[in-house]
Design a protein that fits this description.
Rossmann fold, Fe3_Rdtase_TM_dom, STEA3 Metalloreductase, alpha/beta, six-stranded parallel sheet, binds NADP nicotinamide-adenine-dinucleotide phosphate, 2 domains
């Protein structure tokens, strides 16, 4: 951000007069202790949001040039005296050096923005440690989940959520208002005991992706090994043919669609299991086992990884004709034909198979792309529930059916050809069909009216065995007894 930009309000200064809805936070003076990367970005964002900023540094003369001219850079004690709200942009290990300021800090709100280098690094959170050093201050934990870069890039980019916790409601409200004026969305995380959890958040590496990534890797390793045995090891052992060249592209390219296809079916399998459980127990109020709960929560990531593998499969497939091995094989076939004086090698069935195989593959990839795009929060938020569920559930299921057609047209009659059973191992595609076909079959069965109706009733609150007797007025004006669920 240029020096000129630094003084120009980014979000527009909101004044209190005349507009009762506007928060009184804007316009107040905010203190920042420290003059490092975070302090500088914070000061820029605060100035741009209409706050007066006073920065407390151990060496204000040297650091002043790094800050916007609208921000005052002064000695730590001077800065603290000028404001009631102070962001402590200093590492935990240097907190104790601030103890000289204890007298001037009495009664002030300190915002602890610090992070650690390891999860649960210290017994007590940094914010609790700061509070123990300054018992006469009110400490609020917050802003640690936004980076210096996010602060500088303005409200248009980066993470918008600011997680806040404190034992003092009033202080928490003040910091939430400041965050709001700065263009962030404050999220109340409760009292100070949540500080450790908030400090751990920036250190977690893709927490929601761990299980899906391990699942995808596990499937990849299994299918890769299986394909390696069939495509490379079998010809070597049986015919002493060296097919190692197949590993980087062919083996990988037969593995990727297997992973993509099975992962896609794993997006819909937990829904089937959940429906089975609801039908079996006759209620939707019974908790699913933890593993099923976890699985249901990871469906988005599993689906996105399925799309990723399918996209890679499409790219690999595009490149297949570019390989030298492919060119040599083509020429070899042409030479053989010439030697054998064969003119027509056109096999109608094979031509049709390939046309259908590629076409349904493209459609399946198109649908998967749509599912992936609509799972992005910005797109998902613009859809109503019906639209979202139509795309993710109905179109997703159609994508699974089309992928099954893609797999079947690829395999065609290979499952019935005994030459395809290398070391008695069936062709890979037959294995991949197991889970998806189970899911498709289960979905078809759930659509039988008798089952569908029962499932719908359960999902609207009906429970097996929980009947109450109630009295229905009959058409003749008499009363007859009937049975219904207490919830309907
Ligand atoms: P930094 O660039 O190293 O700045 C730390 C500042 O602390 C120094 O510039 C220094 O300012 C001040 N300080 C006060 N007493 C000190 C002492 N005894 N020894 C050394 N420095 C002392 O670090 P930073 O990246 O701005 O991070 C500051 C805090 O923000 C950390 O707690 C960090 O976890 C948190 N945070 C940073 C980011 C980020 O993206 N950088 C994101 C979230 C949270 P003076 O010399 O002017 O006193």
């Amino acid at each position: 951000m240029s020096g000129r930009d630094m003084v120009k309000p980014l979000l527009g200064h909101r004044t209190i007069e005349g507009d009762p809805s506007i928060t009184p936070a804007a316009g107040r003076t905010i203190g920042v202790l420290g003059s490092g990367d975070f302090a500088r970005s914070l000061a820029i964002r605060l100035v741009c949001s209409g706050f007066k900023v006073v920065v407390g540094s151990r060496n204000p003369r040297r650091k002043a040039g790094l800050f916007p001219s609208a921000a005052e850079v002064t000695l730590q004690a001077e800065a603290v005296k000028k404001t009631d709200v102070i962001f402590v942009a200093v590492f935990r290990e240097h907190y104790s050096t601030l103890c000289d300021l204890a007298d001037v800090l009495v009664g002030k709100i300190l915002v602890d923005v610090s992070n650690n280098t390891e999860i649960n690094h210290h017994k007590e959170s940094n914010a609790e440690y700061l509070a123990s050093l300054f018992p006469a201050c009110t400490v609020v934990k917050g802003f640690n989940v936004v980076s210096a870069w996010t602060l500088q890039s303005g409200a248009r980019d980066g993470n918008k959520q600011v997680l806040i916790c404190s034992n003092n409601q009033e202080a928490k409200r003040t910091i939430a208002e400041i965050a709001q004026v700065m263009g962030f969305t404050p999220v109340d995380m409760g009292c100070m005991s949540s500080a450790s959890e908030i400090e751990n958040i920036p250190l977690r590496l893709l927490p929601a992706w761990k299980i899906p990534i391990f699942l995808a890797l596990g499937l990849f390793i299994c299918f890769f090994t299986y394909n390696l045995i069939r495509q490379v090891i079998h010809p070597y052992i049986r015919e002493q043919k060296n097919k190692l060249y197949k590993i980087p592209i062919e083996v990988v390219n037969t593995t990727l669609p297997c992973v993509a296809y099975v992962m896609l079916s794993l997006v819909y399998l937990p829904g089937v299991l959940a429906a089975c459980s609801q039908l079996y127990y006759g209620t939707k109020y019974r908790r699913f086992p933890d593993w099923l709960d976890q699985w249901l929560q990871h469906r988005k990531q599993i689906g996105l990884l399925s799309f990723f593998c399918a996209a890679l499969h499409a790219m690999y497939s595009f490149c297949l004709p570019m390989r030298r091995s492919h060119r040599y094989q083509l020429i070899e076939t042409a030479v053989k034909q010439a030697v054998e004086k064969k003119m027509n090698i056109w096999v109608e069935e094979e031509v049709w198979r390939m046309e259908i195989y590629i076409s349904v593959g493209i459609i399946a990839l198109g649908l998967l792309s749509l599912l992936a795009i609509t799972s992005l929060p910005s797109i998902a938020n613009s859809l109503n529930w019906r639209e979202f569920s139509f795309i993710q559930s109905t179109l997703g299921f159609i994508a699974l059916v089309i992928s099954t057609l893609h797999t079947l047209t690829y395999g065609w009659s290979r499952a019935f050809d005994e030459n395809q059973y290398k070391f008695y191992l069936p062709p890979t595609y037959t294995l991949t069909l197991l889970v998806p076909c189970t899911v498709i079959l289960a979905k078809v069965i759930f659509n039988f009216p008798c089952i569908q109706q029962r499932l719908q009733r359960i999902r609207r609150g009906w429970e097996k065995g929980r009947y109450v007797k109630f009295v229905l007025p009959s058409a003749r004006g008499e009363y007859s007894s009937g049975e219904t669920s207490s919830n309907v």
